Amino acid sequence: MNNKKSNFPADDAPSYESVLQCMRCGFCLPTCPTFALTGRERSSPRGRVALARAVHEGRLDFTEALKDESFFCLDCRACATACPSGVKAGEVMEICRGQARSAFPGGHLSATLRRFVLERMLPDPARLEGSMLPARLYQRLGIQWLVRHSHLLKLGPDWLEKAEGMLPKLEMPLRPRLPELTPARGRKRGRVAFFLGCVMSLLYPEVSRQTVRVLAHQGFDVITPRATRCCGAPHLAEGDRQTARRLARHNLELFLAEEVDAIVTDCAGCGAILKEYDELLAETVPAGRRETFRARVRDISEFLAEAGLRTDGLGEVRASVTYHEPCHLCHAQGISKQPRELLRAIPGVELREMNESSWCCGSAATWGLKFTDASRQILKRKLDNVRATGADYLVTANPGCQLQLAWGVKQAGLPQQVRHLMELLGRATPE
Amino acid sequence: MISQTAVTALSEKLGRKNVLSEKEDLLTLGYDATPGLSALPDIAVYPTRLEELLFALQVARDEGLAVVPRGSGTGLSGGSVPHKGGMVLCLGRMNRILEIDEANLTATVEPGVITLDLFDAVMAKGLFYPPDPGSQKVSTLGGNVMENAGGLRGLKYGVTRDYVMALQCVLPDGSVIDTGGKNVKDVAGYAFKDLLVGSEGTLGVISQITVRLIPPPRSKKTLLAYFDTMPKAGEAVTRIIAARIIPSTLEIMDRTTMICVEEHAGIGLPLEMAALLLIEVDGHPAAVEEEATAVRTVLQQAGAAEIKLAADADEAASLAAARRTALSALARKSPTTILEDATVPRSKLADTFAEIERLAEKYRLVVGTFGHAGDGNLHPTVLCDERDRGEMERTHAFYEELYEKVLAWGGTVSGEHGIGLAKKAFLARQIGPAGIAVMRRIKNSFDPRGMLNPGKIIMEE
Question: Which residues form the 4Fe-4S ferredoxin-type domain (chain A) (predicted)?
């Protein structure tokens, strides 16, 4: 195996060490939602790593089937949590997506569209905000109502109907409205930078508005650099590692320029990627700067749990709540206890655990749109567990999950209201 | 090679999604959890009921294909590696729990049922299925039966064989035999059932399994003891057994294993210690109380540096769960982990630990040792790199010399993982030419054409 001949088509391939690490014990199998769907070994973490290893050892070409597997992986990282050997099958597949882009550039139209979105739209917040305007007008003018009720969408592809159905009621994007400095209230405890995610700003501006308000109320000066760009997660998910690195570098330098105790985000997806800048930028940014940045990044629930939540003056939220763990929070960041602690700390809240709270909801960035049927099956399993709790609220901490769950709850006619953890905490926090 | 007609026939009968012939599928069905072993089968099929299983075997016969049965592929001796190609017979989709018979205290299942799923299902009815291989969340009952899997409760409750009451088995010629039944006592004829358990898919394909259930223990206590040397911990185990106490679980981990497990599970193990014993006693509350006290006394006398009682069921469960990850956790440290399944009479435990330490030093190897100390069943694991030829040779020499000692002490080359491909030479040494010859005759009488899992267990002539 010393004279292995790698069949990976481009640079930036998964390292040989990372695939050799898998000893194939199979502990990942029961944790993998796609394996649960298909029962097919190659759609399991162990199988996927074995395929990457075979490519590395020249026993397999980088085939279309491997490309498909790399995109079929939800990248939920449940396998990494379960893996005693420390194999990161999700990451290996994420890197394989980049390889897939080289091996199979795809049709001209979709490639151009994808590049336009990834390279032009997402990196540019102003352009992104502008592009949401038609969607907002569409909602305001009542066209949405018309479209939703006329079954027009039934004529289009599945994903379009779902995407349309998922859109929450849109407000003005938060980014231009959020002050660059929100001063602490009461006894000051520190100064933090808030990393505002794109989806948060565009689709859930109210959530992040609450997050900043809560932070200030908890005694922190909050600065929100307006020049923040997309964290790069969508690019990694689509295999565009180059643009992801460019964005990562920009954000890292931007936030390191601030004198803050922590860089806080309320988007689990952004938080996970920010914490992975360390590896992503290993070759382009000096270790010291990467470490300083990494040491500051916190998910909001992690940050508040560490700082200690000040509960004096919190109002009561009389409700039973169940909590869905976003993959990028519990698996990618290992944050599981903290959101529950916060929920329990809100006066009046009764936390009801659901079964399989850390099982993926099937959203996974654009996965839920690409694999609509599979996504629906994963979501159904989640909703069955939600239903069994009989809770008033379904709380989560990531916009992707929130979109998917809100849509699912509506489709299934469940009574639960879907909320971000910070919306609940925001409600308990006096204006 | 398999003909296109045969592939088509299989697809028609079993459904397209149950017949896989793409290279990507075949590559991922040619391994189990044994390091260094993998192969490429010609085709993989997933029967979902007996009729389809029989059809697949018929096709294999017609095509002259080897047939390698497979559960979840968690085996540790290469039992399901199709090293001669042919058909991989995946039984994971025959996974129904057919019956839980509360009057007779039995459960009947298809071979693809996951071990823990059966455990949970019978537990919900207030019953207990004791065998609990480390891989219980993943492994299938069929695989457990074929490898005669052990587990953490083996000391008090025994291994899979002790719970198998009946098997339905498909022979290579297509005949179906039912052996055993729900009778507690049954001495009618040859004990086919006992021969089939642990036969590693070389004699027949199991299509249905009936297991014995027992009432669950009413209470349980979990103790942890730390030692500053491994032989001391081994001595403590010997003394517990000699004191006529049979805990349900008596597990050991050395420091290397503790470090890896701690890195994965983060349960706060004291890494300055050289060895840990995890001990569970279960049964009637009064007996448990008394035995726990007695164990504590023996541990103290044996020189334990620290003894701890698990605070509650959750802590006990997390300790056992952490122990189950030992092997996989060791794989964090090196690209390749080669584990063994050496088992010795329990009076020889301390000697075995000393021998492992001596040999590790002699061959300059990093060895993590853990296992079911109460059974005398140890898993010394060499942490190495398969790309380093010299290290692999030293690893080989390490096991050669270790097994020489183990056999001289009356031990066995496999306590629970089976022989498969990995340990054929060692088995030949353990049972001798006459033993191998009888095994070969048995194999021939079940499978004269050598179609089922060829080349496993028995060295070829």
Answer: 12-42, 63-93
Beta bridge partners of A298: A264
DSSP-derived pairing of the beta strands B87-90 and B43-45: parallel
Considering the domain architecture, whether residues A301 and A213 belong to the same structural domain is answered as yes
Confidence of residue A384 (pLDDT cuts 50, 70, 90): very high
Residue A237 lies in a domain: yes
> Is the pLDDT score of A109 beyond 80?
no
Burial B199-209 (b: 16+ CB within 10 A, else e): bbbbbbbbbbb
Residues A318 and A302 in one domain: no
Predicted local distance difference test score (pLDDT) of residue A370: 85
**Residue of A366 and B251 predicted with greater confidence:** B251
Residue A387 φ/ψ, nearest 5 degrees: -55, -40
Nearest chain A CA: its distance from B195 CA (Å): 27
Nearest beta carbon to residue B31 from set A21, A24, A44: A24
Express each pLDDT in A177-222 by its tens digit.
999 999 999 999 999 999 999 989 988 999 999 999 999 999 999 9
Is the pLDDT assigned to residue A322 strictly greater than 80?
yes
Contact A84 B264 (CB under 8 A): yes
In this structure, the answer to whether residues A293 and A325 fall within a common structural domain is no
Q: Which two three-digit tokens encode residue A297?
A: 């990044």
The predicted pLDDT at position A333 comes to 96
Based on C-alpha coordinates, what's the Rg of chain A?
21
- Closest in B22, B72, B73 to A65, CB measured: B22
Residue with tokens 């207030």: B126
Q: How many CB atoms lie within 10 A of CB B8?
A: 11
Q: Which tokens sit at B246? A: 């049979």
Query: Which of B16, B24, B333 to probe by mutation at the A interface, max A CB count within 10 Å?
Result: B24
User: Cβ contacts (< 8 Å) between A3 and chain B: which residues?
Assistant: none
Query: Residue A279 — very low, low, confident or very high, per pLDDT cuts 50/70/90?
Result: very high
Closest partner CB to A20 (pick from B264, B265, B335): B335
Q: What's the pLDDT band for A107 if we cut at 50, 70, 90? A: low
B20·A50 Cβ contact <8 A: no
pTM value is 0.92
Residues A133 and A80 in one domain: no
Please give the pLDDT value at position A81: 93
Under 8 Å CB-to-CB from A304, ≥6 apart: which residues? A214, A218, A338, A342
Give me the pLDDT at residue A245, please: 95
For residues A63-69, average pLDDT: 94
Mutate to test the interface with A, among B16, B20, B28, B144 (most CBs of A within 10 A): B28
Q: Report the CATH number at residue A97.
A: 1.10.1060.10
Instruction: Please give the pLDDT value at position B316.
Output: 85
CB distance A25–B33 less than 8 Å?
A: yes
Question: Which residue positions in chain B have pLDDT lower than 70?
Answer: none
Same domain, residue pair A341 and A385: yes
User: A285 is in which domain, residue-wise?
Assistant: 181-306
CA A264 vs. chain centroid, Å, equals 15
ipTM of the complex: 0.94
pLDDT of A97 > 80? The answer is yes
pLDDT at A1: 43
Q: Average per-residue pLDDT in chain A?
A: 90
Residue A11: inside a domain, yes or no? no
Q: A5 φ, ψ to 5°?
A: -125, 105
How near does any CA of chain B get to the CA of A54, in Å? 8
Per the structure, the count of domains in chain A is 4
How many angstroms separate the CA of residue B142 from the nearest CA in chain A?
16
Q: Using CB atoms within 10 A of its CB, is residue A351 exposed (0-12), middle (13-18) or buried (19+)?
A: middle
Describe chain A by its helix, strand, coil percentages, rounded to 5: 55, 10, 35
**DSSP strand E in B291-423: where?**
306-309, 336-339, 366-372, 377-384
